[in-house]
TrEMBL record:
Region feature (Disordered): 265-310
Coiled coil keyword on record: yes
SUPFAM superfamilies, A to Z: Duplicated hybrid motif, Prefoldin
Protein's organism: Mesobacillus selenatarsenatis
Coiled coil, from the record: 26-134
CDD domains in the record: M23_peptidase (cd12797)
The name this protein goes by in its record: Peptidoglycan DD-metalloendopeptidase family protein
Composition skew (Basic and acidic residues), residue ranges: 265-275
Ranges for domain M23ase beta-sheet core: 328-430
Keywords for the protein's UniProt record, in alphabetical order: Coiled coil, Signal
Span of the signal peptide: 1-30
GO molecular function, one term: metalloendopeptidase activity
Record flagged with keyword Signal: yes
Length: 436
């Protein structure tokens, strides 16, 4: 679309150049007012179409921004969930640490229980050996029968009962201690295992949530990149719409100038008719002399010096047109180390555009109509520009100063000559050196 717009812009501006350039009026036929009006309407229609595309692009940008907002809300919720999980993991770590401390304390208690159980085991083993060797019943009977008196018998019965109960207590305590030991060990191991499982689940959840956050952040990055691209496209469209509007205004001016030119042509024709009529009347009144008047001298235009265009700057051509560093170099580079080196218009024409470009730096595009052929010249990397859009320039007129702006490496002028309109692919570029 940009190529079409620029091509139409050049053609429309050329109409103005053909009208205003004294050297081109006799070399090219000016477009009719109806044709110029048609071009103006085409510009207007294209501008309307671009404005519609701009509105559509802005609508798409709005949709992208809504998606980003919704995605951002989801990311916030995930961040909250991750923070919550991390807090729970920290709490579980604290519980695990506390339980580990309890286990250490329990180990001491267990060690004490084991010691007591071992001691009772030894005592029980001793009693078992004694019982096995002597027999429990006989021994107790001998003790009782060996009493010297009834009172001694009662004392011995009481002693035997105490011993038997003590042995029973030892066995019961032994059983309780073993049961308590097993219970405590089971409780602590179960609690620790549960805590570890909960921590494991929380860590797995954290990994999952972080993966979701990463995925959504990548999506957010993609959406932002798309938005940036759409903003760039919208800005480019707005620039195209602006260019079309400028060309539409230039076409209105060209139509008015064409009307004036045709009116002046009609006036000159009428004056010529009146002059010839007066001359005929004078010849008739002089008696019809048959003498032939001397022919009017033919005034020839002075021969043009040089080629079709002039070299736009003094200096040395350091790089010609053609393939260079893997790309097509569409013009010639003219270098000059001097200060304030002037740049001249290569031929009569109209400034299509005078602006700053990130690649061309300070650049000027000029449209020319030479011998009925449309040409476009480009002057780039200048330090300053001295003409503006729509301005009529003359061959040899200073339009700027050599510089080093944009994508440039050293002071020089990058100069392009296009046979026809300029286009982004630069398919119309020719060697300027062949024409100066």
């Amino acid at each position: 679309m940009k190529k079409q717009i620029l091509s139409l812009a050049v053609v429309s501006t050329l109409s103005l150049g053909s009208l205003l350039s004294p050297l081109s009026i006799n070399q090219a036929t000016a477009a009719s007012i109806s044709e110029m009006q048609k071009q103006k309407n085409e510009l207007k229609n294209q501008r309307s179409g671009i404005n519609a595309e701009i509105n559509e692009k802005k609508s798409q940008i709005g949709e992208l921004q809504n998606e980003q907002q919704a995605l951002n809300d989801q990311i916030k919720k995930l961040d909250f969930a991750v923070n919550d999980a991390e807090e729970k993991i920290a709490a579980k770590n604290a519980e695990i640490a506390q339980t580990t401390e309890e286990i250490e304390l329990l180990k001491g208690e267990i060690a004490e229980l084991v010691k007591r159980i071992d001691q009772r085991n030894e005592l029980l083993k001793d009693k078992a050996r004694s019982l096995q060797e002597n027999g429990s019943t006989v021994n107790y009977i001998d003790v009782l029968l060996g009493a010297n008196s009834f009172s001694d018998f009662i004392d011995r019965v009481s002693a035997v009962t105490t011993i038997v109960q003590a042995d029973k207590g030892i066995l019961e305590q032994h059983a309780r201690d073993k049961e308590e030991l097993e219970t405590k060990q089971q409780e602590v191991e179960t609690k620790l295992n549960n805590l570890k499982e909960m921590k494991k689940d929380l860590e797995a959840l954290t990994v999952k949530l972080n993966a979701q956050i990463k995925q959504k952040n990548e999506l957010m990055s993609t959406l932002k990149h798309e938005e940036e691209q759409m903003h760039a496209e919208a800005m480019e469209m707005e620039e195209e719409a602006k260019l079309l509007k400028e060309q539409e205004a230039a076409m209105v001016q060209a139509i008015e100038l064409e009307k004036k030119r045709q009116a002046e042509k009609a006036r000159q024709a009428e004056l010529e008719r009146q002059r010839k009529a007066a001359a005929a009347a004078a010849a008739k009144s002089s008696g019809g002399s048959s003498s032939t008047p001397d022919p009017e001298p033919v005034v020839s235009e002075p021969p043009s010096s040089g080629g079709m265009i002039i070299m736009p700057a003094s200096g040395r051509v350091t790089s010609g047109i053609g393939q260079r560093w893997g790309t097509f170099h569409a013009g010639v580079d003219i270098a000059n180390r001097g200060a304030n080196v002037p740049i001249y218009a290569a031929a009569d024409g109209v400034v299509i555009r005078s602006y700053y470009s990130s690649s061309y730096g300070n650049a000027i595009f000029v449209a020319h109509s030479i011998n009925g052929q449309t040409w476009t010249t480009v002057y780039a990397h200048m330090s300053n520009r001295q003409v503006s859009n729509g301005q009529v320039v003359s061959r040899g007129q200073r339009i700027g100063t050599m510089g080093n702006t944009g994508q440039s490496y050293g002071q020089h002028l990058h100069f392009e000559l296009h046979k026809g309109s300029w286009n982004a692919s630069k398919s119309n570029a020719v060697n300027p050196a062949a024409y100066w």
